[in-house]
């Protein structure tokens, strides 16, 4: 897992050097990965060795997609959409959500199915669920950190109590619950019968990404445009402030 953190650091460093908003999700994902590693080291999972191996496999779906994109190698439609929109004038929250959407809604189910191939998938369920609680604790932390670089983010509250937090929480926690369902579906199909189901999942996740980029609600869309106008635009400054303890 330390090697995964090093690769994520490299992506973040490149994003800072190139003022590339692709670094926003990479920062969040590094934070999550580091926390899971800490929990593994504290032996807080039922099977810590398996969870470390699983987390590396899961991370490799993102790293492979990133490397495929920059090297013009075909990748999933949903990851391609996220990367292609990496420098669109969206809010920092939207850029993060585009990454969360694909990595959780598509990659996580693939990782569960692959890692538990030939085994009883229920053996990993408790540890998988425990990760949800880890993610929930990071939601509040990210809420505070985003306020450092997005001074108008609180305006989303006008559309509903804690809407901004609910957006993040849904993307990270609720999506993991959906990914468990998808993982079970793929696991049940077996590796030789998965391709059609994976293609369909990819299209669904792509449509979710399109919704994240352009919400159907005119009020939310207007608010997001207004929020983006007042956000810090320098990627290095944003990530530096997000990192600050």
Give a quick set of tags describing it.
245 residues, mainly alpha, globular
Report on this structure:
The chain has helices at 2-18, 23-41, 48-70, 77-84, 92-115, 125-147, 163-189, 195-213, 218-229, 235-243. It has 245 residues and is mostly helical. The longest helix has 27 residues, at 163-189. 40% of the residues are buried.
The rounded Rg comes to 17 Å
Spell the H/E element sequence: HHHHHHHHHH
Tell me how many strands there are. Answer: 0
The 3D shape can be described as globular
Largest sheet: none
The portion of residues forming beta strands comes to under 5%
Write down the overall mean pLDDT.
Answer: 87
Residues in helices, as a percent range: over 70%
Low-confidence stretches: none
**Distance from first to last alpha carbon:** 23 Å
Structural class: mainly alpha
Instruction: Give me the number of helical elements.
Output: 10
